[in-house]
Here is the input.
Amino acid sequence: MSMGSGFDADAVSDVVSQRADVLACLADGPKHNRDLQEELGVSRSTAYKALRELEEHSLVERTDDGFGLTLTGRLAFDQHAQYTDAIEVLCVPGSLLTVLPSDAIDSLAVLRGADVVFAERHAPNLPVNTIEDIVHEATALRGMSPVLLPLYVELFHECIVDGDLDANLLLETPVVEHLFDQYRTAAVEVVETGDTHLWNIDETLPFGLVVVDEPDPMVALIVYDDSGGLRGVITNSTASAVAWGRNVWERYRSDARPITLE
Here is the structure.
């Protein structure tokens, strides 16, 4: 490349992607060709070819200690590694993300480090079991839901009326109407405990959400299809995921109305 010129972004991107294994080896410091051969398990000619390509694109340079990353090489590899990591994070929930609206999630925080439970053909209730375990173990949580399953009514009634769960639940308008039409006695008993606050929102919720505040903070993103079928649950207990869940819940709550029995 001539001095005083810019680089071909497409060419550099291709080389970084194709030679990422070499760049990763050099990330800890300069190495000689023979060291790369041993670490990567490649022939002398293969290592030489890779280094020559990287050097031609100013991604590596020769030093007294062998080949080392240039500033461009280090920054380019860092960006490539972040991109690769993001793709891997997105692939864990896989098909669950295809069910959600394209603007449903604005951050990888809830996905990075998450566990995913899918509804399998042979075991469709696996996500339900996960939700039950989360609610049973919680003493304080916030939740929101675009659907109402009979199990949810039984589960929250048991944990609130007969247990010590403190809950704030945000529900879509059709869900509220169905709750008080079909399960009015249970709903009234829950509200009358004073330990639960129900919120009504007219907006369509893109997914279900449970944010556990106590005793062990965690978040569960619950995915339903267009017909209300439960497709899976994404759970995460990292601080960034919990913060994401709390922010999402508060954002929807700001547009909701408290439900009273009056």
Observations:
- The chain is about 45% helix and 20% strand.
- The chain has two domains: 9-89, 94-258.
- The two ends are 77 Å apart (CA to CA).
- The longest strand covers residues 166-172.
